[in-house]
Design brief:
binds nicotinamide-adenine-dinucleotide, alpha/beta, about 475 residues, 2 domains, 13 strands, eight-stranded mixed sheet
Length: about 475
C-alpha cells in the first residue's frame, strides 16, 4: 500500500464480516499527517501501557473496566458516588449480575482503583464516559450528567487525551454539546485532544454475549480521533465497526432501541387483537419464529422497563422536533407500551371478579418479579413498580416476591414504595395469604409450578408458566 492511499477494509480486522458497507477508514499508517501524539498513543495502546479511565462505574462502566483490566490495561474508575467507589476499592460487587470474584480480582494486581477525585481526570490517556442519560420530569432528555462530566474533564484536560462518550443520546450530542464544553479548556478537538462516540450495547444478565464479544460501533468527526478510538476499542473488544461520524454512531444506538420498542409494541398490540379470537400470541410467535428468514421474535409483556428502551426513543423524537420531522412510530410505540401496565391490572381485576367474585379493593395480591427483566437486579423504569402502585391505589393489599430485588430503593417516580421488602418464598403461606399472584417478571429462580399449586389465581404477563402442567386452569395469560 502506498503512503496516503485510503484503505478500503479495516486495518486491524481485514474485511469486516457481515457488516456490509461500513465506511472506508484511513489508517494512521496510511496518513502522513497523523501526528506524533496519535502515533505515540496508539503505540502505548498496543503495548497495553495506556491508562484507561472509565467515568461512571455503573451497569455499563463496570463491565467495561473489567474488560480493559482483563486485557492488561491499568484502569481508573471514576464515580461521584463515594459509597460505590469505596465498595469497588474494597473489591465488593455493587451489581448482582457481575460476579463478586471478578470485582475482587480487579484490585489485586494493582492495575485498578476507583476514585471520586475528578481532578485526577488528567491522568489517564483515554477517558470513557458512561454516565446516565435519563429523561427529565417533562420526559425530555436530561443531559446534565454528561454536561457535568464534560465540565469536570475540561478542567483537567491535557493535550493528547482521547475522550469517548458511550452514554446513549441523540445525534449531535458529542459534537454540539460535549465538544464545546471540552474546548472551554482552550484545547481544540481533533488537534490537541481527541473525541469520539461509541454506543454501549451492554445487556446485563445475557449469558451468551458479554462486553468483549459484542461488536462495538465507533464514530468520530476527524480522522485522528477515529483512528485512536478504533485502536482503543480494538484492544478491548473482539470486533470494532467504524462509522463516519459521532452523530452516525449516536444514531446507531437509538435505531437499535427504537427497533426493539416498535416491535415490542407490535406484539403487544397483536396480543390484544388475537385474544378475543381465542388465539394465543405466545403460540403464534413460537410458530412464526420457526421461519428461518424474515422474522425475528419479540415478546409481549407488562410494559417496557430498564434504562434504555422506554427512554432512548424519546431522545430521538425530542431532537427530531428541532428539524420539524414527525416521529410517529416512536410516539405510537410509546403509547401502546405505556398502556400495558394498566392492561395487565385490568386482566387481574377481571379474573378476580369473574372467577372469585372478588373485588380488587381488599384483594390480597402477590406480585412475582419486580426487576424490569428476568435475572437482573435493576428496577429502573420497571413496569412492576407502576403496577404495584395502581393496585394499591385500587385498594389491593400488595406484597412482592423477588430475590433479585430484596428491597425497593428510592426512585423518582415511585417514592411511596421505597423500603418495601420481598416476602420469603413459602408456598404453604402463599396459599393462606393471597387471593391472586401476578407474574410481572419471569426470573428463572422461581418455582412456577409450586406457585400455581399454592395460589388459586395466577395472572401471567410473561408466559412464565408455560411448562407448568398441573392446575393450568388457575392460570390467566395477560
Ligand atoms: N444499563 C444498561 O444495560 C445500558 C445498556 C446500554 C446503554 N446504557 C447507557 O449507558 C449509560 C450509563 O448507564 P448505566 O446503566 O451504566 O447507569 P448507572 O446508573 O448504572 O451508572 C452510572 C454511574 O455514573 C455515575 N455518575 C453520575 N454522574 C457522574 C459524574 N458526573 N461523574 C462520575 N460519575 C458519575 C453514577 O454515580 C453511577 O454510578 C446511559 O446512557 C445508558 O442509557 C445502559
Amino acid at each position: 500500500m502506498f503512503i496516503g492511499q485510503p484503505v478500503t477494509h479495516h486495518r486491524f480486522y481485514g474485511p469486516l464480516k457481515g457488516i456490509g458497507s461500513v465506511m472506508p477508514v484511513q489508517s494512521d499508517v496510511a496518513r502522513p499527517e497523523a501526528g506524533a501524539k496519535v502515533t505515540g498513543l496508539i503505540a502505548r495502546i498496543k503495548a497495553h501501557e495506556a491508562v484507561i479511565g472509565v467515568i461512571g462505574m455503573g451497569y455499563v462502566g463496570q463491565p467495561l473496566a473489567l474488560a480493559a483490566h482483563s486485557r492488561g490495561f491499568h484502569v481508573v474508575g471514576f464515580d461521584v458516588d463515594m459509597d460505590r467507589v469505596a465498595k469497588l476499592n474494597q473489591g465488593h460487587s455493587t451489581i448482582k449480575t457481575i460476579p463478586a470474584e471478578r470485582i475482587a480480582a480487579l484490585g489485586k494486581d494493582g492495575r485498578f482503583r476507583a476514585t471520586s477525585e475528578l481532578s485526577e481526570l488528567s491522568g489517564p490517556d483515554v477517558l470513557i464516559i458512561c454516565v446516565p442519560t435519563p429523561l427529565n420530569k417533562y420526559r425530555d432528555p436530561d443531559l446534565s450528567f454528561v454536561e457535568k462530566t464534560a465540565e469536570a474533564i475540561a478542567k483537567a484536560l491535557r493535550p493528547g487525551q482521547l475522550i469517548c462518550l458511550e452514554s446513549t443520546t441523540f445525534p449531535g450530542t458529542t459534537s454540539e454539546i460535549v465538544k464545546p464544553i471540552l474546548e472551554t479548556s482552550g484545547l481544540e478537538a481533533g488537534r490537541d485532544f481527541y473525541l469520539a462516540f461509541s454506543p454501549e450495547r451492554e445487556d446485563p444478565g445475557n449469558k451468551k454475549f458479554h462486553t468483549e464479544s459484542i461488536p462495538k460501533v465507533v464514530g468520530a468527526d476527524d480522522d485522528d480521533s477515529r483512528v485512536l478510538a478504533e485502536a482503543v476499542y480494538r484492544a478491548l473488544i473482539d470486533n470494532v465497526v467504524p462509522v463516519s461520524s459521532s452523530a452516525t454512531a449516536e444514531a446507531v444506538k437509538l435505531t437499535e432501541n427504537i427497533f426493539r420498542s416498535v416491535n415490542i409494541a407490535l406484539v403487544n398490540e397483536l396480543k390484544h387483537v388475537y385474544e378475543p379470537m381465542g388465539v394465543s400470541i405466545w403460540e403464534v410467535i413460537d410458530a412464526a419464529a420457526t421461519k428461518p428468514f424474515g422474522f425475528m421474535p419479540f415478546y409481549p409483556g407488562p410494559g417496557l422497563g430498564g434504562h434504555c428502551i422506554p427512554i432512548d426513543p424519546f431522545y430521538l423524537s425530542w431532537k427530531a422536533r428541532e428539524y420539524n420531522v414527525p416521529t410517529r412510530f416512536i410516539e405510537l410505540a410509546g403509547e401502546i407500551n405505556t398502556a400495558e401496565p394498566n392492561h395487565v391490572v385490568q386482566k387481574l381485576v377481571n379474573a378476580l371478579a369473574g372467577r372469585q367474585k372478588r373485588a380488587i379493593n381488599g384483594a390480597r395480591v402477590l406480585l412475582v418479579g419486580l426487576s424490569y427483566k428476568k435475572n437482573v437486579d435493576d428496577l429502573r423504569e420497571s413496569p412492576a413498580l407502576t403496577i404495584f402502585e395502581i393496585l394499591e391505589a385500587q385498594g389491593a393489599k400488595v406484597d412482592y416476591f423477588d430475590t433479585w430485588a430484596p428491597e425497593i430503593p428510592e426512585t423518582r417516580e415511585h417514592r411511596a414504595l421505597k423500603g418495601r421488602k420481598t416476602v420469603a418464598w413459602d408456598p404453604d403461606k402463599f396459599s393462606r395469604d393471597y387471593d391472586a399472584a401476578l407474574i410481572v417478571t419471569d426470573h428463572e429462580n422461581v418455582n412456577y409450578a409450586a406457585l400455581v399449586n399454592s395460589i388459586e389465581l395466577v395472572v401471567d404477563s410473561r408466559n412464565a408458566t408455560r411448562s407448568v402442567s398441573s392446575n393450568r386452569d388457575r392460570i390467566v395469560l395477560a
